[in-house]
TrEMBL record:
<keyword id="KW-0804">Transcription</keyword>
<keyword id="KW-0805">Transcription regulation</keyword>
<keyword id="KW-0238">DNA-binding</keyword>
<dbReference type="InterPro" id="IPR036388">
    <property type="entry name" value="WH-like_DNA-bd_sf"/>
</dbReference>
<dbReference type="InterPro" id="IPR036890">
    <property type="entry name" value="HATPase_C_sf"/>
</dbReference>
<protein>
    <submittedName>
        <fullName>Response regulator transcription factor</fullName>
    </submittedName>
</protein>
<feature type="domain" description="HTH luxR-type">
    <location>
        <begin position="366"/>
        <end position="431"/>
    </location>
</feature>
<dbReference type="InterPro" id="IPR016032">
    <property type="entry name" value="Sig_transdc_resp-reg_C-effctor"/>
</dbReference>
<dbReference type="Pfam" id="PF00196">
    <property type="entry name" value="GerE"/>
</dbReference>
<dbReference type="InterPro" id="IPR000792">
    <property type="entry name" value="Tscrpt_reg_LuxR_C"/>
</dbReference>
């Protein structure tokens, strides 16, 4: 009878975990596993998220310092279906952990998705308990794999966005290729170089670009996040050839910050800046281009460092338009990550283009039901509550109408409401409170 009661309790717990909304599955799982393996925090590494490759849950001072690169290092030594335990570096220090890897076959969840429990003690976990943790993780990853293939359009939208942004990250290689070709044209058009010198410089650029493209492809397969200063250094390296043999001077303003950026954010920021610089170089006359990154406060329930601002300034004629930048699909890339683009052109003085990318979901006030919404989703909900239609919201936020529909579907799902009217009513009620 005792065994049957234990089995019933385990099945009930499993049902609670997989029956929870997707954004709550990790927290539910951590709570259930806490009764089996005592732990201070749990962390998950998976490729199925649009904005970040990993999540962490538990003690804030510990979970908040876990990095994707630490999880990736642990993942290298864990085989699917075989729990691993020992000392590993996580949250900046060596700690006892139990790690399990799933064997998911779906596209939206990464094959071999990893779960790491940061334990409270060093004593070995009994094999039976480790096997139970593995079983729960296999159940969760299998559920997510099935969800990715059978989900209805609304809940499936985030997974589609994740796949889309991964494709855009791969497309960054194409952007780098375009930058290399532009640099080659700059050399060939330069009046300061004779034929022999131009040929030598062009050959050097071509070889360097090929080496960099191959190295970047390898890094893209392995990196889940990058320190901000290193991400900017990669950007600077790709921009210098564009201007090294022309009259335009490149000025750089690195972020001076080494905090990690999610790989998709770093990819998007580099690709957007390169695209903007290419658009800026079409202006004449032009003497100077300044490129800078800054990590700052998003401003709404925000904590320091909630957004990345990438700025491109020039001293050109000051007639740069949003349409000139839009040909490089900058707006679509930013919209996929909840970002935005601002273009400020002053005739005779130059132009400033600023791309803003959120680095995470802003902190909400305690007990705020809207805490599950991202920054862009809150902006859409505010306008939805005012009675604005999708087209009007798209124009105000300078995003496509299809992107607005995507955000509205997410809002309805996260707030557990079925209509725009219900979402608007909830927003009005919370504002009145």
């Amino acid at each position: 009878m005792a065994d049957r009661n234990a089995e019933t309790a385990a099945l009930t717990a499993a049902a609670e975990v997989i029956g929870a909304p997707l954004e709550q599955v990790h927290g539910k799982l951590s709570a259930v596993l806490g009764g089996i393996v005592a732990h201070r925090a749990s962390a998950e590494l998976s490729g199925g998220r649009a904005h970040s490759p990993f999540t962490a849950h538990g003690e804030p001072d510990l979970a908040g310092r876990v990095t994707g690169s630490e999880l990736a290092a642990i993942a290298d030594g864990v085989r699917a279906g075989r729990p691993w335990q020992g000392q590993a570096r996580i949250a900046g220090d060596e700690r006892p952990v139990l790690a399990v890897s799933g064997a998911g076959d779906g596209d939206a969840t990464a094959r071999g998705a990893l779960l790491v429990l940061v334990r409270t003690e060093d004593a070995p976990v009994p094999e039976a308990d480790a096997a139970t943790v593995q079983a729960f993780w296999d159940l969760v990853t299998g559920h997510l794999d099935r969800f990715s293939t059978e989900a209805v359009p609304g809940p499936l939208a985030p997974s589609r966005t994740a796949a889309g942004e991964r494709a855009r990250a791969v497309a960054e290689l194409g952007e780098a290729h375009a930058a290399a070709l532009t640099a080659l044209l700059g050399v060939l058009r330069s009046r300061a170089l004779d034929d022999t010198a131009a040929r030598a410089h062009a050959t050097e650029l071509a070889v360097t670009s090929l080496v960099e493209l191959r190295a970047e492809a390898e890094r893209d397969q392995a990196v889940t996040e990058e320190p901000a200063d290193q991400a900017f250094a990669r950007l600077a390296q790709s921009l210098r050839p564009l201007l090294s043999h022309g009259p335009v001077r490149l000025e750089l303003g690195p972020p001076g910050d080494s905090r990690p950026l999610a790989a998709d954010v770093a990819h998007a920021a580099r690709a957007v800046v390169r695209a903007v610089v290419l658009a800026v170089l079409e202006q004449h006359p032009l003497d100077r281009v300044h490129v800078g990154w800054q990590i700052g406060d998003g401003g709404v329930h925000g904590s320091p460092g909630t957004e990345l601002r990438a700025t491109v300034r020039d001293d050109g004629p000051g007639d740069l338009t949003r349409d000139a930048v839009a040909v490089h699909r900058v707006g679509e890339r930013l919209a996929a990550l909840g970002g935005r683009l601002d273009v400020d052109a002053v005739p005779g003085w130059g132009s400033t283009v600023t791309a803003v990318l959120p680095l995470g979901t802003p902190e909400a006030a305690p007990g705020d039901p809207l805490a599950v919404l991202g920054a862009r989703e809150r902006e859409v909900l505010t306008r939805l509550a005012r009675g604005h239609r999708n087209r009007a919201i798209a124009q105000e936020l300078q995003i496509s109408e299809s992107t607005v529909k995507f955000h509205v579907a997410n809002i309805l799902s996260k707030l557990s409401v079925s209509t725009r009217g219900e979402a608007a009513a909830l927003a009005h009620t919370l504002r009145a409170a």
